[in-house]
Amino acid sequence: LARQLATGRAQTARDKLASYYRRSSSAAILLPLLSPTLVSILGMPIWLAFVYALFGIVIGLVQFKFSNYIKHCDYASVPTVEALSIAIKIARYQRYIRSFCIGISCILLFAMFYIALDRYEYHILSGFIIGLVVGLIIGGIKFIRMSALVRQMKNELQSLLDDE
Fold first, then answer.
1. Beta-strand (E) ranges in 13-156?
2. φ, ψ for residue 113 (rounded to 5)?
3. I need a surface site. Which of 1, 74, 78, 101 has the fewest CB within 10 A?
4. Which of 154, 143, 155, 152 is nearest to 21 (CA)?
């Protein structure tokens, strides 16, 4: 009974985490739709809008595939050690995806800031800064929640291992 409860809690955390990634993938698909506004409204170069759109497509696909991977992990039908290794693998992949996203987005943001500064368009720069602050707050909250879910999965499965 204790194993069923622990794996049930781990699977609930897994489902919530998969749901977060699925929602993130749908939000990332908005980037290609917004990329033409970089050129038409903000006057950014076409290559930057293209890279921005490509980033949205790649990140959207990666997060969608990762959400499917998480959703199909079954903790109840595998031994506890294997279930724990799956949870650890999810945490590792999560770090890789996060590092990749942060790295590429920093390059894009740096390019946008540089272009806005070079053109002395401080109103665009102030909009970027406000967007960056809001994005960091939302991203920080999301990071904390998603990390807590992975930690919960690992802790539940680790408690099973400790009980055996």
1. none
2. -60, -45
3. 1
4. 143
Give pLDDT tens digits for 146-158: 999 988 888 888 8
Whole-number Å distance between alpha carbons of 31 and 95: 22
User: Can you read off the two tokens belonging to residue 96?
Assistant: 């890789």
Residues 61, 25 contacting (CB under 8 angstroms): yes
User: pLDDT tens across 67-107, in order?
Assistant: 999 998 887 777 878 888 888 899 999 999 999 999 999 99
Q: Is 70 exceeded by the pLDDT of residue 53? A: yes
Nearest by Cα to 48 from 35, 60, 58, 57: 35
Q: Who contacts 53 (Cβ-Cβ below 8 Å, separation ≥6)? A: 31, 32, 35
- As a whole number, mean pLDDT of residues 121-130 equals 88
Nearest to 14, CA basis, from 86, 81, 62, 79: 86
CA angle, corner 4, sides to 76 and 19, nearest 5?
60
pLDDT at 78: 78
Closest listed residue to residue 90, CA positions, set 11, 24, 2: 11
